[in-house]
Amino acid sequence: MHKKTALLRAAAPVAVLALALTACGGNKKSTTATDEAPKTEKGSSAPADSGELKAGQGGTGKFKEDSGTITYEVAAQKVHVSTEAETKKLVSDPKRAKGLVAATAWVKYTNKGGGVVKESPDVADESEIYADGQRGGLLIGAAEDGPGCEDTLDIENWKAGQSHTICQTYMIPKGAKSVEVHWAGEGQSGAPLIWKFDNAG
């Protein structure tokens, strides 16, 4: 999804809500964009440190980039939940955002080995935000180049030992009590890494 996401971000002045909230009691994702982004062929193996982590605490897992399979340490640093007024400015259709707010996660990724990521890493595409146990809706084109956030299009020759902080923005219900960041590879059987933010803001 990354390559298409990057193109949409570059072209769209306002964000597009790409995925609706997961229906209550179900795990199926429903799309609200006019055309669904194609599924990536990339994926990662089960994280070695699966389970719940504290903010800033890292867990490791392998992820297949274009240039090879990289071992990453992943650490969600913080989550900021926007107000309704701020959210309306982010989305293309404020009516579709009724009752929802934007949540942005800052996640630090460290290349621990396996090769050099030549350009535009996809590892951040595996980060998702959940609110009160339900997956949020990805907000394409949000201000993910904000303070402390790096644009994946600018990341090149990512060597072992180097870190980058990449942000993802999701739409979640207003007033959610629990906000979590999940990182897991597509199609993996292992438990994801989870960071819980009770007082996200």
Report what the structure shows:
- The protein is built from two helices and 13 strands; from the N terminus they run H-E-E-E-E-H-E-E-E-E-E-E-E-E-E.
- It has 201 residues and is mainly β.
- The strands form three sheets. A six-stranded antiparallel sheet has the order 1-9-11-5-4-3. Strands 2-13-12-7-8 form a five-stranded mixed sheet, with no helix packed on it. A two-stranded antiparallel ribbon has the order 6-10.
- The protein is globular.
- It starts with a helix and ends with a strand.
Helix run count: 2
Structural class: mainly beta
- Based on Cα principal axes, name the global outline: globular
The total of beta strands comes to 13
N-end to C-end Cα span: 27 Å
In round numbers, the mean pLDDT is 78
The largest sheet, given as strand count, sense and whether it forms a barrel, is: 6 strands, antiparallel
Spans where pLDDT lies below 50 across 5 or more residues: 1-13, 19-46
Strand content: 35-45%
Q: Helix coverage percent of residues?
A: under 10%
Radius of gyration: 16 Å
Order of helices and strands: HEEEEHEEEEEEEEE
Strands side by side in the biggest sheet: 1-9-11-5-4-3
